[in-house]
Amino acid sequence: MEIWYHGHSCVQLTHGGHSLIIDPFISGNRLATTKPEDVKAEYVLLTHGHPDHILDTVPIAKSNNATVIATFELATYMSWQGLNTFAMNIGGRTSIGFAEIEMIQAFHSSGIVLEEEKKIIYGGMPGGYVIKWDGLTILHSGDTALFSDMKLIGQRHKIDLSFLPIGDVFTMGPDDAALAAEWLGAKAVVPLHFNTFPPIVQDADRFAAGLRDKGIQSQVLLPGEKLTL
């Protein structure tokens, strides 16, 4: 499986001729090296409705005729933008043919911000995803704080790779993310949601080194970089 990090919390998974992308925020990210029009994906998975997670959903989904997977409220909003959608919610599972997807809880907030209208539309509960694909289990936590049920998630799933935010201020910081990695029991961790904006600047290399000292593999990816599982 090829994993392509587009920056912030945007991750694309590709394997066996299939591809999905999570939280597409590319055009608004000064650190991104990819353009939305270059993304080829069959599914777009959204963890919550904040602009830095959904900004490029419409152009990517429309250009690929892709299906957007999100909570009921966020999927409904995306359907109003003319997109193909599949609504689910926390604890639900579904098959997309080449992979099985479960939506897990996250402790955060979710709202679609309409700047020009000065309105915020409720975006449903925030969440994350456990993706099981050809024998691999990938977890994308979405934006979240540390919460004790991460232990339960780790007990129920043998996680090969976990994507966790470390930026602090809006999500858990490095210390809580390190504890989350232990509770989830992931074999490997890639940090997300850092350095995009001044409030969330972090030393990701130090975070990764700390995990390795605990026996957890960790790799820092820069926007545009890939790894293979």
Cα separation of the termini: 5 Å
Strand proportion, as a percent range, falls in: 25-35%
H/E element sequence: EEEEHHEHEEEEEEEHEHEHEE
Which spans have pLDDT < 50 for at least 5 consecutive residues? Answer: none
* Average pLDDT: 97
Binned, the helix content reads 10-25%
Number of strands: 16
Q: What would you call the shape?
A: globular
**What's the arrangement of strands in the largest beta sheet?**
6-5-4-3-2-1-16
Specify the biggest β-sheet.
Answer: 7 strands, mixed
Structural class: alpha/beta
**Oligomeric status of the shown chains?**
single chain
Give the count of helical stretches. 6
What's the alpha carbon Rg, rounded to whole Å? 16 Å
Describe this structure in words.
The chain is α/β, with parallel strands linked by helices and 229 residues long. 21% of the residues lie in helices and 32% in strands. The strands form three sheets. Strands 6-5-4-3-2-1-16 form a seven-stranded mixed beta sheet. The chain has a seven-stranded mixed beta sheet with strand order 7-8-11-12-13-14-15. Strands 9-10 form a two-stranded antiparallel sheet. A hairpin with a 2-residue loop joins strand 2 (10-15) and strand 3. Helix 4 (150-156) packs parallel to helix 5 and helix 5 packs parallel to helix 6 (204-213).
Provide key terms for this protein.
seven-stranded mixed beta sheet, alpha/beta, 16 strands, 6 helices, 21% helix, single chain
Task: Give a short summary of the structure.
Helices cover 21% and strands 32% of the residues. By secondary structure, it is an alpha/beta fold.
